[in-house]
Amino acid sequence: MIEVKNVSKKYKDFKALDNISFNVNNGEVVGFVGINGAGKTTTIKISAGVLKPTTGSVEIDGFDISKNKVEASKRIGWVPESPVFEENFKAIDYFKYLAGYYKIGGKEAEELGIKLFEETGIINAKNKKLKEFSQGMKKRFALAVSMIANPSNYLFDEVLNGLDPQGIVFFREFANRAKKENKAVLFSSHILSEVQNIADRVIIIHKGKILAIKNMDEVVKESKKAIRIAINNPDVNILNILSKFGEVNKINDDVFEIKGEVSSEYINELLVKAGYKVSKIEQVGGLEEYFLNLIGEKVE
Amino acid sequence: MSYAMEYDIRRSITKPLVIILLVGLILAGIGVAYLEGQVSLSQITKYSVVLSYNVTSNQTEILGLALNPQGNPIKDAKIFINNGWVETNSSGYFLLAIPSGKSYSIMSPTTLQISGINYTASVSSIGVVNVNLKNKSAVLYVGSYLIKNNFNNITSYKVYYSQESLENLMRGILPKNYTYIGNIYGFSTAKFSIPINLSEPDIIVLLQSINISSNKVPEFNFTYSTVLPQLEVSNIRDTAVSTASYIFAEFFPLVGLFLTNEFIASLRSNGAIEFIASRPITKKQLIISRYIGGLFALIMGSLITSILMPITVSYILNTSTSLATIGKMFGMLLVDTIGFYSLLYLVAVLVRKNFIAISIVLYLILYLFNIMNIVAIIADMPKLMYGTPYGLYEIVMGGFNFGFSFAINYILVTIIGIIWIALPIILAIIIYDKNDSP
Ligand SMILES: Nc1ncnc2c1ncn2[C@@H]1O[C@H](COP(=O)(O)OP(=O)(O)O)[C@@H](O)[C@H]1O
Ligand SMILES: [Mg+2]
Predict the structure, then answer these.
(1) A176 CB contacts (<8 Å, ≥6 apart)?
(2) Number of domains in chain A
(3) Contact of A255 with A229, CB cutoff 8 Å
């Protein structure tokens, strides 16, 4: 379990995080969504014990990441947004070096490395230097390293960003498996739809503040696509007709919204046949629009 | 943390660049030592002119014997003595007579010319020739000192001999135990075979007058000393080792610069330190572990050098070396290199960019141009030379003092050395721990 408690972070005079709090429970994958510069990476680095918060604290399975760094760090794996290593090392050698921090050495470290490289799909690059690794391979390597102590908490910072489809599938599956093993996973992204299929909950962050924490099904429901229809001088019967297609919202006298799985062309055709004068018909909503509405940015 | 630290250590001492630098520096040092040794060796005086005196009321007679290093008299040699040239006869002798009341001057060493070629010769009442380091034997020539006037009539002496270390002699400590080796009679030069002790280069000869007539005559004692020329080489060796080690001490700190950059500075600059900082380790442990990794390479380098360099130089010059030389060099190399290394860690935690530029400037100031020495000269404050690690090294290893004459203050050396090693790294650890990011 990851508990972020009233964390604020200042870079000199700039407030990157403003008193944010949230939990990631065991057996839960939480999406952490915000546009670039929202404060996701800062939050994740603080949770990984890399950055110090200006105020507030983060607890990993009850261990304070600042006060009890060693115990807390053992219990959390971090895959950075753009991982940087000592790149002249061979992958397996650097793995073994880092395993040393978990008091695993020699043959044991080598065997663990091979096992985790197999799991993360970089076994063929075991003896390659890290500087020859692609961005995706670096993320897989970081994941392999983060699995050394088999931690019960993971922080994935934009892991899907820039990955090939295979890599995306891999990380999704990994998150699902971790969830089944009752682990806590925080998955950051700047695209809400990216976490839609994995996350149980989503935390929306913007300008260093948490705007919303919602269950994923709630989000899906609220962000459902709708068809907005403007009709010249509709009669009373119109609501009956439209409600056949889904839930109808009357926006004003002439404008209606229908949520449901229906094509706008089909409705248009039907309404025209029934003698209505449709002046405008358009698709509205969807995750992206929903997200941008939430953070208060104008939709283009 | 233990395995990771082990790895840091292993990594630092197996870095090819570290090894190459080390080997290169040692070789350069030895090369300089060799040249230094050869030049000094050629300047050692192995020719001797042994003088006997016959002092009477109206004149002083001086009988000189010229000897080559093998102990053979040199005939027809020209010797510059008493402000003029004298020439030896077919037995290698010359005789000077100086009327009483007239002053004369005998200077050692002097020029000795054989068939037009100049050599340097020592001039003394004793001469050590035919030194055989293998058999530990030598031939000692002793000139007599006859006095005949109204009060004395001394014509013979008992000859004693002893060997002493240079340090004792310089402190004015004369030997307690002499060995009696024979007598010398009349106005002549006597020859004795003596055993020699290789560890004590100074030979001291004591002449004790033999009272023939009665106990009214006061006893005359003369002590002479000379340095065994062949053992003087051990002095050359020490100078050669110092000179060689200056080279090493001046450039070895660059290995520390390389290690600090490899181990912390470049990682802070490119961000690789973050991934390490997220391991189960505190920031304090992280910086200490990295520091120790590099430290080990520097200690190993210093140790290897302080063993190899004196041994190699001794081998080249065909002498032995002492544990004291090795120990002193090791200690001072540690101050010299770790002092800088610690400072670099402080720099590395203070800046994230420009580490290399700043370090090189510091290197130029503290090592290549050791500005403190220049300030010491300008301000006429010799103590300022103690201010830098390299200054300490120069002072202790070479008595290097730019013409200032002062005794080495070892307590000061120790205190400043420890401060240079410990203070910057302690500050670095404290500051690093307080930093918001690794
Ligand atoms: N080291 C830093 N120094 C100053 N400002 C920073 C630093 N790191 C991040 N920021 C700023 O903090 C804000 C949050 O950044 P970040 O956490 O990286 O956001 P995200 O990961 O959501 O894109 C941004 O405005 C960014 O410019
Ligand atoms: Mg980010």
Answers:
(1) A29, A198
(2) 2
(3) yes
Between the alpha carbon of residue B372 and those of residues B173, B342, B382, the distances in Å are 37, 19, 10
Task: List, for residues A165-217, the tens digit of each pLDDT value.
Answer: 888 888 889 999 999 999 999 999 998 888 888 899 999 999 999 999 999 98
Arithmetic mean of pLDDT over chain A: 91
Please state, in angstroms and rounded to a whole number, the distance separating the CA atoms of residues B293 and B276. 15
Cα distances (angstroms) measured from residue B142 to each of B105, B202, B228: 20, 15, 15
Print the domain residue range for A13: 2-221
The H or E element that residue B87 is part of is: strand B84-87
Name the token pair of A296.
């208060």
CA–CA–CA angle B1, B4, B7 (5° rounding): 150
State the nearest Cα–Cα gap between B248 and chain A, in angstroms: 28
The answer to whether the CB of B197 falls within 8 A of the CB of B231 is: no
Identify the pLDDT of residue B203: 85
Q: What is the pLDDT of residues B136-147, one digit of tens each?
A: 889 999 999 998
- Chain B segment 263-302 residues within 8 A of A by beta carbon are 267, 270-272, 274-282
Verify whether the Cβ–Cβ distance A50 to B437 is below 8 Å. Answer: yes
Q: Which atom of ligand 1 is nearest to the CA of A157?
A: 21
Our answer on whether the CB atom of A38 is closer than 6 Å to any ligand 1 atom is yes
For chain A, what is the largest distance between any 2 Cα atoms, rounded to a whole number of angstroms?
81
Is there a single domain that holds both residue B194 and residue B331? no
Map residue B92 onto helix, strand or coil: coil
Rounded to 5 degrees, what are φ and ψ at A119? -60, -40
- Ligand 1 atom at minimum distance from B437 CA: 1
pLDDT at residue A152 is higher than 80: yes
Domain around B338 = 2-40+252-434
Antiparallel, parallel or unpaired: β A14-24 and A63-64 = unpaired
Q: Describe the crossing of helices B2-14 and B16-42 by its angle, rounded to 10 degrees.
A: 50
The answer on A199 and A164 residing in a single domain is yes
